[in-house]
Specification:
alpha/beta; Rossmann fold; six-stranded parallel β-sheet; six-stranded mixed β-sheet
């Protein structure tokens, strides 16, 4: 099987020239490029990509740590990352953790072994003290804010968005407001939701909080509980438009009217929310993913805040 030395000898050029042709280096004459490419075609030579990566000093591969897919928030961030990866001709390796802290650290070690140029963390299970040592091997970009100077981040001010969302419902005359969330109190976003609720309404009743909501089915389940308690809520803030759609579906099935009987506010501006005219808090997660990718390839440690917006529809 031919190697790079055989190609150089047959083409009458140096090994360095062959290497430059393989790496699309601009400082090669067209005559030599054609000569080398002809020999490559003649020998049916396939370059060793790992060897080329070593020569080039990069893999052009970005790792994306994601707890799980089929989740509207993480899928939107990943969508943004993929948009930019195509534009910049990078490959993206999706690294699912299901919030396994050990697995997360194993993925980060891929920076140390030069399998990845950078890692983007959409959501984490380890604390930053465990993560930051890996920054000496390559850029780590977070999709949440962190004070650690070693970490660049593309983030949304979620807490402020939650406060604004709850105030919106309060201004519309609602005092009995329930909400759904994903993970329980180990999640930063869940803690922020609770804190924002307390700022606007005071401590929430246990009956008004439904955990482990990720899908339309979860929203349906949440509505079965929330809409049959004695002091049922007059408004519900769902942690996703799919969850909100499940609540909507159940409410309609028992003869309730949206928003007369119960107002509904979702998150992330999903197509199903638009179809059902559900108001939503759009955290612009596609843009957050795009910005995270840009920070990764630029090896930047900047902190970029992505603006959110509340989209008003008929459900409130």
């Amino acid at each position: 099987m031919a190697n790079i030395h055989d190609i150089a000898k047959k083409a009458g050029v140096s090994v360095t020239t062959v290497s430059r042709v393989l790496n699309n280096h601009k400082y090669v004459s067209e005559e030599k490029r054609i000569a080398v490419q002809n020999v490559i075609d003649e020998f049916n030579y396939t370059p060793n990509r790992n060897a080329i990566d070593l020569i080039r000093g990069e893999t052009r591969q970005i790792g994306v740590i994601i707890p799980y897919n089929n989740n509207q928030a993480f899928d939107q961030m990943l969508h943004g990352i993929l948009n930019k990866s195509i534009e910049h001709e990078y490959s993206v390796i999706v690294l699912p953790t299901t919030y396994d802290a050990k697995k997360e650290l194993e993925y980060l070690s891929m920076l140390q072994t030069k399998m990845l140029d950078a890692v983007i963390i959409t959501s984490r299970s380890n604390n930053w003290e465990a993560i930051t040592p890996f920054t000496k091997y390559g850029p780590i970009i977070s999709c949440e804010y962190t004070d650690f100077s070693e970490i660049g981040c593309s983030y949304i001010d979620r807490y402020t968005s939650y406060v604004e969302a709850f105030y919106l419902l309060k201004e519309r005359g609602h005092e009995r407001v329930a909400f759904t969330t994903a993970r329980e109190m180990e999640s930063k976003s869940t803690i922020q939701t609770f804190t924002a609720y307390e700022e606007v309404f005071g401590k929430p009743s246990g009956d008004y909080v439904i955990f482990n909501c990720y899908s339309m089915q979860d929203g349906y389940r949440a509505a079965q509980k929330l809409l049959h308690i004695k002091e049922k809520p007059t408004a519900i803030y769902a942690n996703g438009d799919e969850v909100a759609a499940g609540i909507y579906q159940y409410a309609i099935s028992i003869g309730m009217h949206i928003p007369r009987d119960v107002a509904l506010l979702g998150q992330e501006n999903q197509p199903i929310g638009e179809a059902l005219a559900i108001s939503t808090v759009d955290h612009q997660l596609i843009q957050a993913g795009e910005q995270a990718f840009e920070l990764a390839i630029k090896k930047s440690k900047d902190k970029i805040k992505i603006p959110y917006q509340i989209i008003h529809r008929s459900s409130i």
